[in-house]
């Protein structure tokens, strides 16, 4: 446990030393401050009577808007934005963890300690996830508090959106670790993982693609790839759906399949990364 | 004395990515180091020294043979619980201070924070880094980094030390201090395996050495025995190398050509080197006969001493002889 804690601590120290952590939190803080200072709402009897954005009066068409619906709409839209931003930032902040560990002159220092290789890799994985979780909590929690402070409306579902984002991050970081173990390159880890993210978004239209291709083999290949890769588009929809409570017409057809297949992708990636790392000669 | 480091028939074959090329890094070496012993591993570049150390630490898997630390197979991480390692060209995270580095690596070796709190200042003082305890490692000179590496290897008070070029980049005073530190650790019963190119350091620090050449042990033994064998001053067949006749350095007055000719006539080989004679004799009786010849001619003997090889002589001789042998084959 001591070794585990030391390894996680080192991940955080490294992140702060490399400015990753600071940049991560500075960007989040900037976003939160803009949001907190730019929006001024005039609330009368639980409804929005007027609003100012950057000090400029907004035209609400003369009618009073239901504040709860307004907040829900904002949080729904913002959660979709946060899904993309949070995932990208988390990958950027953690992709170097394995390549740096495997650097010549560094890996010997860690592996010469009485810590199993799998344990060492998993401790760094957990450190990376904690880093991502801390930032998501800070970003989502702050926005939620500001919304509550400005409107008095609190939707706990908005906070739950962070759980889906963290789930997506966990699966993608596992894949980035696998690429990192095999290639020892941060750049390649990032490029391949981002490529998988976008490729998986394209594959969300697998039914249409399969119908458009000429051969049965190609159609089956597209469907197989769809089920192998993480469901990044669907998880984005799941985040929005969770935050909106299904109010905005975004519902997953088969949520269990989406979560289970993505979790399997992450788990297999992590298992392969551990297996390869534990068999590697340094 | 039960060895704490033991390797038997250790082999390592490196294969290229597609298996088209094979390199025998280690070809069946045996090693054993006991408690309180400082053992030096020598060899030219590519001889297999670092591979041997990496196998002992579980960093690399052997192709054949077995390696154990404290009778625990090296594949088991527990075998490293009582081992301190200083790798060559190590790179500690530059963003950590010396104190943080020792804290993190100490805890990774299973130490408690409370114990480390007392242990770290003591260790930093021992390697003369107390004033630099809270300075980031990236600001350290090479010698300071090396001393920090030694402190990190010692942080959990290990019973075995595996050190790869421990004095690399360290100034002469620092080298002396490291030597003294290693001797002190050996006196406490710690087994030390030292891997170094600095043969003079090895000669001053180690009790026993093994010279590796092309993955095999070319010679092994106490330094005094190896250097004596190379000088030819031990009995024939006592060791792996016996270079008779025995050689002595002689200074006498006068040391003219007549005297040299008389020595040569008796069967001795004679060379003039920097104002003295280097004489090769058959045996001790032959040497005494030469002294008698010298005195009979009225010359005065000023110095007579056996020529001893340095470890470097032994090393170079072994490597060159081996290479020549392989070229002939």
Number of domains of chain B: 2
How many separate structural domains of chain A? 1
**Largest sheet data of chain B:** 6 strands, mixed
Order of helices and strands of chain B: EEEHEEEHHHEHEHEEHEHEEHEH
Strand order of the largest sheet of chain B: 6-7-8-3-9-10
Most extensive interface = A-B, 30 and 34 residues
Estimated share of beta-strand residues of chain B: 25-35%
Share of residues in helices of chain B? 25-40%
Shape of chain A: globular
Q: What is the rounded Rg of chain B?
A: 25 Å
Mean pLDDT of chain A: 86
β-sheet strand percentage of chain A = 5-15%
CA(first)-CA(last) distance of chain B? 40 Å
Distance between the termini of chain A: 25 Å
The CATH class of the largest domain in chain B = Alpha Beta
- Please bin the fraction of helical residues of chain A: over 70%
Overall form of chain B: elongated
Mean pLDDT of chain B: 86
- Number of DSSP strand runs of chain A: 4
CATH fold name of the largest domain in chain B: Rossmann fold
What quaternary form is this? Answer: heterodimer
Structural write-up:
The complex is a heterodimer of chains A (282) and B (329). Chain A is of the alpha+beta class and 282 residues long. Chain A has one domain (2-279). In chain A, 75% of the residues lie in helices and 6% in strands. Chain A is built from twelve helices and four strands, in the order ααββββαααααααααα. Chain A has helices at residues 2-17, 20-38, 67-94, 97-101, 107-111, 117-151, 156-183, 186-203, 206-212, 216-228, 232-244, 255-279, and strands at residues 39-44, 47-53, 56-57, 65-66. In chain A, strands 1, 2, 3 and 4 form a four-stranded antiparallel sheet that branches. In chain A, helix 1 (2-17) crosses helix 6. The mean pLDDT of chain A is 86. Chain B has 329 residues and is an alpha/beta fold. Chain B folds into two domains: 5-227, Rossmann fold; 238-307, Alpha-Beta Plaits, CATH 3.30.70. Chain B has helices spanning 49-56, 98-108, 113-126, 142-154, 172-187, 199-205, 223-231, 257-265, 284-296, 311-328; strands spanning 5-15, 22-33, 38-42, 64-69, 72-73, 83-86, 160-164, 191-195, 208-213, 216-222, 246-253, 269-273, 276-281, 300-306. In chain B, strands 6-7-8-3-9-10 form a six-stranded mixed sheet, with helices on both faces. In chain B, helix 2 crosses helix 3 and helix 7 packs across helix 10 (311-328). The longest helix of chain B has 18 residues, at 311-328. The two termini of chain B are 40 Å apart. Chain A binds chain B through residues 2-3, 5-7, 9-10, 13-14, 16-18, 103-117, 279, 281-282, and chain B through 54, 57-61, 77-81, 83, 85, 87, 89-96, 100, 103-105, 107-112, 152, 162.
């Amino acid at each position: 446990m001591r070794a585990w804690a030391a390894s996680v601590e080192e991940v955080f120290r490294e992140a702060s030393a490399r400015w990753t952590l600071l940049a991560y939190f500075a960007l989040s803080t900037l976003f939160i401050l803009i949001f907190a200072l730019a929006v001024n709402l005039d609330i009368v009897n639980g409804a929005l009577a007027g609003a100012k954005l950057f000090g400029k009066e907004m035209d609400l068409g003369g009618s009073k808007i239901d504040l709860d619906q307004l907040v829900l709409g904002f949080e729904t839209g913002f959660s979709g934005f946060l899904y993309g931003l949070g995932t990208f930032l988390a990958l950027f902040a953690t992709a170097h963890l394995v390549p740096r560990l495997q650097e010549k002159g560094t890996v010997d220092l860690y592996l010469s300690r009485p810590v199993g290789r799998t344990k060492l890799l998993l401790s760094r994985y957990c450190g990376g996830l904690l880093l991502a979780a801390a930032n998501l909590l800070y970003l989502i929690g702050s926005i939620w508090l500001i919304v509550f402070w400005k409107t008095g409306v609190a939707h706990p579902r908005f906070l739950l959106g962070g759980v889906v984002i963290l789930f997506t991050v966990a699966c993608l970081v596992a894949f980035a670790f696998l690429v990192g173990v095999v290639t020892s390159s941060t750049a390649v880890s990032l490029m391949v993982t981002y490529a998988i993210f976008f490729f998986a978004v394209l594959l969300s239209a697998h039914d249409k693609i399969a119908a458009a291709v000429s051969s049965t083999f190609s159609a089956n290949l597209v469907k197989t790839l769809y089920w192998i890769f993480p469901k990044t588009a669907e998880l984005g929809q799941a985040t929005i759906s969770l935050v909106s409570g299904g109010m905005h017409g975004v519902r997953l057809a088969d949520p269990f399949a989406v979560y289970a297949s993505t979790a399997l992708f992450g788990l297999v990636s992590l298992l392969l990364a551990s297996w390869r790392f534990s068999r590697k000669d340094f | 004395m039960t060895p704490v480091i033991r390797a038997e028939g250790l082999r390592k074959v490196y294969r290229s990515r597609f298996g088209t090329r094979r390199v025998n890094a280690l070809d069946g070496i045996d090693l054993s180091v006991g408690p309180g012993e400082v053992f030096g591993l020598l060899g030219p570049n590519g001889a297999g020294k670092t591979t041997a150390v990496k196998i002992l630490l579980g960093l690399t898997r052997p192709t054949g043979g077995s390696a154990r630390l404290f009778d625990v197979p090296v594949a088991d991480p527990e075998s490293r619980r009582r081992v301190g390692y200083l790798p060559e060209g190590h790179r500690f995270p530059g963003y950590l201070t010396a104190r943080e580095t020792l804290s993190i690596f100490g805890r990774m070796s299973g130490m408690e924070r409370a114990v480390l709190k007392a242990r770290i200042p003591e260790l930093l003082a021992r390697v003369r880094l107390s004033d630099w305890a809270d300075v980031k490692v990236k600001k350290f000179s090479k010698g300071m980094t090396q001393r920090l590496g030694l402190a990190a290897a010692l942080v959990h008070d290990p019973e075995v030390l595996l050190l790869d070029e421990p004095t690399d980049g360290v100034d002469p005073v620092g080298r002396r201090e490291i030597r003294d530190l290693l001797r002190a650790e050996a006196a406490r019963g710690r087994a030390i395996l030292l891997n170094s190119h600095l043969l003079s350091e090895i000669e001053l620090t180690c009790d026993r050495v093994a010279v590796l050449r092309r993955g095999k042990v070319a010679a092994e033994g106490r330094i005094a025995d190896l250097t004596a064998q190379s000088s030819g001053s031990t009995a024939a067949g006592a060791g792996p190398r016996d270079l008779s006749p025995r050689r002595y350095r002689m200074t006498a007055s006068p040391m003219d050509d007549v005297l040299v000719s008389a020595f040569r006539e008796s069967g001795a080989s004679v060379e003039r080197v920097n104002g003295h004679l280097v004489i090769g004799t058959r045996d001790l009786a032959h040497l005494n006969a030469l002294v008698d010849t010298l005195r009979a001619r009225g010359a005065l003997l000023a110095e007579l001493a056996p020529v001893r090889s340095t470890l470097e002589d032994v090393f170079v001789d072994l490597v060159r002889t081996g290479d020549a042998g392989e070229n002939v084959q």
